[in-house]
């Protein structure tokens, strides 16, 4: 014996079929075929909306849990988590995760954009052309990469062909950066380039407009400058 929902579905299918065949209207229990079919459509749309709302609630609860877990991690746990990250599609194309270089106890933290080809091969930030220039700039003010600074990026994985980071990638990956900054607890942050500057100031103005003022990132003085690759 068929259930009433199966019988109802058979009826809906028959009514749709009769409509597709161009048969004249059918009236059942004072309702026309059109009324029955549109009521069924409205019911299905409502059900789909409810399912998608439940799924969204579940995924935002899972994301809140994830952010909460990150906020409790120590440096080693965070690094290990980032090294295994599969939260966005960049994990499919990266060779290596690029977490940081330099000294995690440094007073100055430099935040760049994302690894390029050389960084993706080496697993270290700023080791290509732009990195060599950064080292030179640091040396000119008697700072060494190894001891005096901590270097990382907004994104920990290389965007294919060095394209700009996408909003979704920035949204996910900056949860790592936020914890990284909290753990390193620098005295000053230097943001190099648009993406680091915009994320850390929370302001979408172009770099040229953001540059030239000192900001505060959660109480830490934040200075913004051009990306060494642009100099
Ligand atoms: N550019 C960046 O922003 N970061 C790197 O690590 C290398 C190049």
Explain this structure to me?
The protein is α/β, with parallel strands linked by helices and 231 residues long. It has two domains: 4-65; 73-230, Uracil-DNA Glycosylase, subunit E. It is 51% helix and 13% strand. It contains nine helices and eight strands. It has helices at residues 4-20, 33-71, 75-83, 90-93, 117-122, 129-140, 167-184, 194-201, 207-210; strands at 27-28, 31-32, 101-102, 108-112, 149-153, 188-192, 214-217, 220-225. The strands form two sheets. A six-stranded mixed β-sheet has the order 3-5-4-6-8-7, with helices on one face. The chain has a two-stranded antiparallel sheet with strand order 1-2. A hairpin with a 2-residue loop joins strand 1 and strand 2 (31-32). It is elongated. The N and C termini lie far apart (78 Å). The model has no long low-confidence stretch (mean pLDDT 95). Residues 112-116, 119, 125-126, 128, 130-131, 153, 193, 229 line the site of uracil.
- Secondary structural class: alpha/beta
Work out the helix count. 9
Uncertain stretches of 5 or more adjacent residues = none
The strand order across the widest sheet is 3-5-4-6-8-7
Shape: elongated
Helicity range of the residues? 40-55%
Mean pLDDT across the residues is 95
